[in-house]
Amino acid sequence: MIRITVDGEPVQGREGQTIAGVLVGAGRTAWRTAQTGGRGVFCGIGVCHDCLVSVNGVEGVRACRREAVDGDRVEREVRP
Amino acid sequence: MRHVAILGGGPAGLAAAQGALAAGARVSLIDEGDRLGGQFWRHHERLTDPRLQHAWHRFERLRGALAGGGAQVLVGASVWSAEASVDGVRLRAVVGDADGDGRSAIDVDADAVVVATGAHDLALPVPGWTLPGVTTAGAAQALAKRDGVAVGRRTVVSGSGPFLLPVAHSLALVGSHVVGVHETSRMPALAGGWLPRPWELAGKAGEFVGYVGALARHRIPYRTGSAVVRVLGRDRVEGVVVARLDADWRPMPGTEREVACDAVALGHGFTPRLEAALALGCAIDGDHRGRFVAVDDAQRTSVAGVFAAGEVTGIGGADAALAEGAVAGFVAAGGALDDPRLRGPVAARRRTHAFATRLERAHGIRPGWTSWLDDDTIVCRCEAVTRRAVAERADVPLRAMRLATRAGLGPCQGRTCGRAVEAIVAESGGAAASVGFDRRPVLAPVRIGELAALADTDPRT
Ligand SMILES: Cc1cc2nc3c(=O)[nH]c(=O)nc-3n(C[C@H](O)[C@H](O)[C@H](O)COP(=O)(O)OP(=O)(O)OC[C@H]3O[C@@H](n4cnc5c(N)ncnc54)[C@H](O)[C@@H]3O)c2cc1C
Ligand code: FES
């Protein structure tokens, strides 16, 4: 079991899951704000860049490609 | 000793590594994923059900061959530059956490390279497809097979090709209720593609029958000549409109019906990841309906020392990728195509190519799909460019159209929308498409700071 925070809220996941896997597993579908509204995972393999988040202060991380680490601070990105 | 670099650690790249080792070469295998296996093998000991993987023993054997042969394996390594010259090839990569800010640089210089970069889903636009809850079929599959999670509680799968069947099965195994699988192609096309010469399909036919049985056990309806033509919802998916289609994939008026769901998985085939092959200078065959790296029967591209295998050369599934990879690696290492050790892979490749031809005949995209778009449907997801904006500029050269509309100029660099934009341009009377959409100066995302640091240390500048 691992714990990360998403915009300050705690979210639990399983060790080894990607950040996208943790978020989808927790029932979340949108974690980025784009011109057309919320976005989350689309391609699942690092191609589409829909799933970008900030992780521990570093912007532009593809949530579907980054393995979640206990204590990660994930934040929403707003990119019109 | 000849040094063979292999770009991509999916079925094609793994088989190429094994082939090159067998022919006596030194091997370096590079993949940006955290683990080997590509899009096909994703089992995670702690997270996933082994029933979600196929031919896992084959993966273990390949992994064993790599370790036994002393191959250099670089994972978490994104190749951002690939160059070929008379002296050989050079691949440049950054290694570390995906999109991390502290990655290190590594260059691999080799005598030959096998490009095995695979493919990604081709999901055609549908009104409403930017709503959260819509994913590609491959994403639903990857999240199930890698992370053990379902993209939704009630999922509708729509698109074309046999890949939709394992996707629906995986979704059911991770606990999603699959409301239906909508295969866009109609029965006559499916029968025309799949029924003749059944003996060519030996193993494949059994595989499909297996999936059809699995779908029946999970009570998942499979409908042909039917597709999701609209996604409904305000802030996220709340349902879809499905309709029956004619042979050209035009929705038939009066057949629309609403279905409630919270997730939609779309997949209309696959698009090869051509950028590395293009950077190396390889010739490309085909048009906007399908464009692949051109190879001869030894998997040689048009550039000396550069080979290609797997889905960059045509969409034929994992078995085709394995067979082509075995040939490519062996010949890249200096082995001969008529070596008795290649007899098995060469025969397997013949079978899988027959399969690929049928796949295209039965499930290939038909031009009528654009009629399910509205004028204001977003085609380019990154830059929110509508179908109307693309169609209005169809008569100017592709480059100018992209600069004017920004289609394909966002973070994904046209990977997601490229084929759809080209289809809309073609249908609106625009100039014939070219490889424009597949040419990307930097092959994988690298941070500006990283790039600057890498340029400073380039030994040749
Ligand atoms: C999301 C997805 C899920 C799929 N799931 C299945 C499935 O469950 N069952 C099935 O039968 N088929 C599946 N497929 C189809 C699949 O493409 C083929 O069956 C098979 O994996 C093709 O093998 P390959 O070796 O050609 O390519 P891949 O398996 O795609 O391997 C290519 C590898 O190249 C690497 N790569 C690409 N560019 C770079 C770069 N610049 N730097 C470093 N590494 C790079 C990638 O990380 C990848 O690991 C899936 C396809 C997709 C897109
Ligand atoms: S979902 Fe496409 S890049 Fe992550």
UniProtKB/TrEMBL annotation, chain A:
Keyword Ribonucleoprotein: no
One Pfam family recorded for the sequence: Fer2_4
An MF annotation (GO) of this entry: iron-sulfur cluster binding
Keyword Cell cycle: no
Matches recorded under InterPro entries: 2Fe-2S-bd_N, 2Fe-2S_ferredoxin-like_sf
Keywords: Oxidoreductase
Name the record gives this protein: (2Fe-2S)-binding protein
From TrEMBL, chain B:
Protein name: NAD(P)-binding protein
Domain FAD/NAD(P)-binding: 3-325
Keywords assigned by UniProt, alphabetized: Oxidoreductase
Domain of life of the source: Bacteria
Gene Ontology MF: a single term: oxidoreductase activity
